[in-house]
Design a protein that fits this description.
The protein is an all-alpha fold. The protein has 12 helices and no strands. The chain starts with a helix and ends with a helix.
Length: 266
């Protein structure tokens, strides 16, 4: 226990020292760039850092995760300082809010509610969250309030996941293929009609159906697409290198020639 207390003391000290660095940067005689930032300007950097952390986790690079985690944490503290500066709330207010929320949403830990596994935990969480939304005057929905800023493929995955909680779902992954074939047929019809708006609609339906198929296969479509893109980039680079080594120009080659090189690097 004493060892844990020492660890927590050190972490709190480092947290305090980081806030001191932030305050120094934001002081009247601090860094001009840091002084000029607003919530609107800083949010894009937060998103970039979150994706860099996501990538570091995927790469299983512990030291990289440590660095990116620190970068994201600093920007969160930066954002809190901006809101405190304009008198909206303090970092302490945000910490208190999330602490109370976690206690409230885990009644099986901090209360007397009994659960029989993670499914019960999720069901309780959603029920409590729905009640909170009602108390705030927001519309209660099984779909919740997933942020529009989420990558569309990930949002599609999560929306299907939430709809499935009330049984609005296919029984098996194989059943989704019928829907996918139907959507592809409708896209083909839109292409024949040369209806641009309908083409966009049908293509969106196909992507949403694929996201649901991924969910039924227990595969995150965002992760699957990232891996596919990574594989494409690596192969394309190998193809470029091979063609360049032969002294040829890709832009002057036919699609059949390029396909031959592509199959070769595969």
């Amino acid at each position: 226990m004493a060892e844990n207390n020492e660890k927590y003391t050190r972490e709190l000290q480092e947290f305090y020292e980081l806030i001191k660095v932030l305050k120094r940067l934001r002081a009247p005689d601090g860094c001009p760039w840091d002084r000029e930032q607003t919530p609107q300007t800083i949010k894009k950097y937060m998103l970039e850092e979150a994706y860099e952390l996501y990538e570091a986790i995927d790469n299983e690079e512990d030291q990289e995760v440590k660095e990116e985690l620190g970068d994201l944490l600093f920007l969160l503290l930066f954002l809190a300082d901006l809101y405190e500066e304009k008198g909206a709330f303090t970092l302490g207010d945000a910490l208190l809010n999330i602490k109370e929320k976690m206690i409230r949403r885990h009644p099986h830990i901090f209360g007397d509610v009994k659960v029989n596994g993670s499914k019960d935990v999720v069901a309780n969480w959603q029920a409590i969250k729905g009640k909170e939304q009602e108390e705030k005057g927001k519309k209660k929905s099984t779909l919740g309030n997933l942020p529009l800023a989420l990558p569309a493929l990930q949002r599609a995955f999560r929306l299907g996941e939430r709809a499935s909680r009330v049984g609005f779902d296919w029984d098996r992954a194989e059943d989704v293929f019928d829907k996918l074939r139907e959507e592809i047929s409708e896209l083909e019809g839109a292409l024949e009609a040369k209806d641009k708006a309908q083409i966009e609609d049908e293509l969106g339906d196909i992507l949403f159906t694929v996201a649901n198929l991924s969910r039924k296969l227990d595969v995150n479509p965002e992760d699957a697409l990232k891996k596919a893109l990574g594989k494409f980039v690596k192969r394309f680079h190998r193809m470029e290198e091979q063609i360049e080594n032969e002294g040829r120009d890709m832009s002057q080659m036919s699609i059949d020639e390029l396909e031959s090189y592509w199959q070769g690097v595969k």
